[in-house]
Amino acid sequence: RVVTISGDLRGGRADFLVQGEPGATYRLEMSEDLETWTFLGRVTSSERSFLFTDTSPDPGQARFYRAVREL
Fold first, then answer.
1. Each residue's pLDDT tens digit in the chain (71 positions)?
2. DSSP readout, the chain?
3. How, if at all, do strands 13-19 and 4-10 pair?
4. What does the alpha-carbon distance between residue 64 and residue 28 come to, in Å, rounded to a whole number?
5. Rounded to whole angstroms, how far apart are CA atoms 71 and 64?
6. N or C: fewer beta carbons within 10 Å in the chain?
7. Phi, psi (5° rounding) for residue 27?
8. pTM to 2 decimals?
9. Cβ contact 44:24 at 8 Å
10. Which of 57, 50, 46 lies closest to 13 in space, CA to CA?
């Protein structure tokens, strides 16, 4: 299943709307090079979408995000 992440940078934070399946648990990760991934948090979705906020994005550095469904 594909998880859609849409983000917006405002006021020194990155907000993401993650769409997935209700009741599923997702591991949220960040990478600066698409090779090494850093764990940011874990969320169990109670609805089809949930909001996740990265409160420490570096505006001078490209960041990539992903939500990985845990089995």
1. 445 666 666 667 777 888 888 999 999 999 999 999 999 999 998 888 888 888 877 777 788 889 899 98
2. ---EEEEEEETTEEEEEEE--TT-EEEEEEESSSSS-EEEEEEE-SSSEEEEEES---TTS--EEEEEEE-
3. antiparallel
4. 11
5. 23
6. C
7. -100, 125
8. 0.78
9. yes
10. 57
